[in-house]
Structure prediction request, 689 residues.
Amino acid sequence: MAERRLQVTSRLGLHARAAANLVRVASKFKSSLTLQRLDGNAEADAKSILSILTLAASRGTDLRIVASGVDEQEALDAVVGLFSRDFDETEKSDGGQYSRATEELRCKGLGVSDSIVIGRVMRLQEGTHDVYRAEIAEADLERETRRFRAAVRLSRRQLETIKDRAEKELGRGHAYIFDAHLLFLEDAKLTRDVEDYIVKQRSNAEWAAKVVGDRLLSIYTQINDEYLRERGSDIEDVIQRLLSNLTGEGPRYPNLSEDAVIVSPDLLPSTIAELNLNHVKAIATDAGGWTSHMAIIARGLGLTAVVGLRDFYERTRTGDQVIVDARRGEVILHPSESTIEQYQTSDQTPAFVAVNHAESGPVVTRDGVQILLRANVELPTEFQAINDFGACGVGLFRSEFLLSRPGMMSSEEQQYEVYKSLAEAAGEYGAIVRLFDLGGELGSDLKERERNPALGLRAVRFGLRNKEMMRTQVRAILRAAAAGRLSLLIPMVADVGDVRLAKQLIDEELVRLASEQKVFSEVRIGAMIEVPSAMLTAEKIASEVDFFELGTNDLVQYTLAVDRGNDKVSEWFRTLHPAVLYGITRTLQAAREASIPVIVCGEMASTPAYAVLLVGLGTIDLSMIPALIPRVRRVLSQIGAAQAREVALKCLNSATADEVEELVRNEFRSHWPELFSLNTLPKPHQSPE
Ligand code: PEP
Ligand code: MG
Prediction:
């Protein structure tokens, strides 16, 4: 055995490129080579890049190198020589990929909640599916291991191609990172551990790769040295590639640190619903707008969120420090010490929590108009909030979030339990369960991607094409209605034809439940008015349903032909467009003539200024995220509905959204200066460049 002590002197420590060179040199010898930190904290195999990196040996770390075997002296000399030459690095500076700027970087997006978080980036790429565990029969373990090795080979070929291209296009300094990826991929610490896991746990290869990968990643996220910790992202990349090659699926989210900020190009609402909220502190996404489902659910869960950041994801690495300031709609990557200090000393209490929310029931305007304030809820975890924020029951239960992942169905019994507890939580005002609004941006279990999901097999169309799924849900609702006050809502009807088809199915299930002697109750049936054709034929629909719900999020999207989740067109998403106000008025009028109620349940209802305008247009029933009810309550209790009506009429006569917004700014400031600061009113619009 031969050994030597030395100190890491290179500026960046034993980072990926240095470690890769060390592995290359060490692997030429037969002897084993071990690196030990003198502080006793860790030991690494010099032939394994993953093992070396977990040493977290930054500049100044004292190490002992131990060689043992037939050529131990030569091996030791070669390694010591490499250390003394600072690992033969051609670029002494922070060149190549690792020269990423770590100066403070501010990106503007759209804050969809009201709070601020300081945390660490956890990158998450969507568009992939979950990795599930499957038990493999003893006889198939060998085949499973071979499958894993084949995925490693395929990943290697892909990485070699990428590396060649990077070398040609960007130069050697940039391509070396793929050398490191190749070494990660073939590192025994990864491959052997995965294979061991497959065999010992009789696990499928995907699950084994995910578990081992997550384990390695969690080691990295705990490393103190900023520079070395960043290498976790490279391991993350390699694991993702491996998983994609095994299944076409990637890991959902690795072990999360306590202060994780999920950074993603886009997130499925169901992914957000699944997040472990004890760990995830905030989300920041490139896509999304105020009314995208991702934003709605983040708000409902009280998550700090900034969406519509466009190219933020590409600028981050897992482990980077980040501030998510949803109040200003801003994220700050690599915040400077003074920025952090500024944030730490500022008041981070979300504004809506500061409002007294002891009151409950309807709110009455100064001139005596009574307005119901109901809750929009998506998940059973929010049921408690119905009471906490004084809601008049539940105006909208977006039931599709029960199917926590696209493609997963909940049984009749499971749904029944949820609807029953929803009815209990909603109390005397009851709850309105919307049939699954699947498809569109929420995804579905459709195998082929639709060309135009928002105009595709969404909501009631999806239900009518998947009748068994719809029947199961209808039965669960009808049965739960025997235990509390529930109504049923049909989403996104295009006309009364959709309503009739849905009602026919509901009638059939009523008959079946009766013949099966099940306990159930008839329910009131409502239609969502959220597409222009439904708005334009509202009188016809009104004569066949018990109530309307106005979904302003989709009404804006479809009336103005602006994708609600696409940040590139967010400037055109104008809630106060006169065409939208006209659509709302028309719907309210049709309902009035048929003597049925209308609940406005889009995000518009939760913004105080917009809520006032809705009251001016004749709305007396609003539904919104529970936490936002106190704020709307406070404002509505201090305005006169007649004054709101005057402003609304002027708005209806305007030609553009700009004109309406200007009117709202001026009139609201003059009628209710104590209620509306300029901050709380629509800002003057910048025309799109
Ligand atoms: C709406 O469209 O306004 C609505 C309330 O439904 P969702 O946001 O779920 O589409
Ligand atoms: Mg909708």
About this structure: The chain is about 45% helix and 15% strand. Confidence is low (pLDDT under 50) at residues 91-100, 249-255, 350-355.
